[in-house]
Amino acid sequence: MRKALLGSALLAALVSFGSLATFADQRDPNLPTLFKFLKSAQHSDQAGLVEDKIWEIWSATGDPELDRLMVTSSTAMARGDYKGALLDIDRILQAKPDFAEGWNKRATVYFLMGDYQKAIADIDRTLELEPRHFGALSGLGMSNMKLGRDAAAADAFRRLITIDPLYPNAKRNLKLALDSLSKNSI
């Protein structure tokens, strides 16, 4: 019963956030409350709703042309056109260099291209602008795993779990990094 009430209250709060959002990106004043909901989510469905709302806020640039480029870069990424995606994202970052999700999106493209060093550099910038960026922390862990940096990967996954305890595969990835670290230390 309590779980159902918490779920109903969470859903009502998220609906109201949709109409209250006045800012875009990582500076939105609704984010601290959403992160409190995220940390206290009781199951993955609740966490997923909150994550989706946070991603929605993070992805909004506040500029219609830049928002269009966010969409076209995602479309280019989905079809494997990484050069096209990078062109769009670079335009976004040139216009709005303090836009955390732009840096995260470019890090994702670099990760998909197998350039984990560039991905990590952009993730670092993302985390400077938005230290709670759970997607960037997951990417940091995955990039470090690809580079064989198991301790750094484990650290990223631990940080991720403190922000978003139910993030998909975070605990499994932490275990993989720790297992690999212990195998390599023998």
The radius of gyration is 17 Å
Oligomeric description of these chains: single chain
Q: What percent strand?
A: under 5%
- Largest sheet: number of strands, sense, barrel closure: none
Per the CATH scheme, the topology name of one domain is Serine Threonine Protein Phosphatase 5, Tetratricopeptide repeat
Name of the CATH first level of one domain: Mainly Alpha
Low-confidence stretches: none
Could you characterize the architecture of this molecule?
This protein is mainly α. It has a domain at 64-184: Alpha Horseshoe (Serine Threonine Protein Phosphatase 5, Tetratricopeptide repeat). The protein is 77% helix and 0% strand. It is built from 10 helices and no strands. The protein has helices at residues 2-20, 31-40, 44-59, 64-78, 82-95, 100-113, 116-129, 134-146, 150-163, 170-184. Helix 1 (2-20) packs parallel to helix 3, helix 6 packs antiparallel against helix 7 and helix 8 (134-146) packs parallel to helix 10. The longest helix is centred in the first third of the chain and has 19 residues, at 2-20. It starts with a helix and ends with a helix.
